[in-house]
Predict the 3D structure of the following.
Amino acid sequence: MSNKTLLLAAHGSSQHDGNNPILRLAETLHEQKIFNEVLCGFLRQQPFLRNVLSQIQATELSVIPMFSGFGYITDTLIPKALGQVSNEITVHLYDPIGVHPNIPMIMAKRASSIIKEHGLHPAEVTVLVVAHGHTKNFQNADQTNAMAADLKKIMNGITTSTAFIEEAPLISDWPKFTTAEHLIVLPYMIGGGLHTQEDVPIMLGLNSGDYDQTPVTGPLSAHGKTIWYCRAFGFEEALSDIIVGIVSE
């Protein structure tokens, strides 16, 4: 793979605070010395995807969309942007990282670690998978529900629900559809930013804050329940091995 460049194509944030998991992931992959070059390209922050693509020198380019699932960006914007790459470069565009079959296992391990560490009884726990959602496109919700169903199977049928920022069921309605004493919240999102630091916690009944510094924050309390709030799965170290496996197939 010495002539290959790996590109992590991501959304980014215009209000990023430097704690971007994609940048960390790129550093980890670069240190493994499997690829000649590991680059990041963002839509909303520097380095911008269009600028990165204009500077590609490798003979082979592997592009991993760092998104939780398929959507307009992965299906239209990224392929369109790749049109500016030289015809002399062989381009491999892979599926979004969030649809990889190992993602439910990664998230299940995070939830299981909380249950084990705090001695929780699974019957008294609800795992809540939260995502963005969209009122005009149900693709994100469908993918989130499918991932949550896989997670439930992995965790031996533990009570699992999904909720969204922009479509029903809304995250703010979670007390209406769970009676469990303990709530484990798993954002089905790649990075942090305003969604995981403000939107989701406030809708849960928590304070806004920088929840990306540690894998899990809790126990917290809201609506008379105990909550463990996990950071986005884009911070999980296992993603580097998944990406290497994808490109190596």
Observations:
- The mean pLDDT is 93.
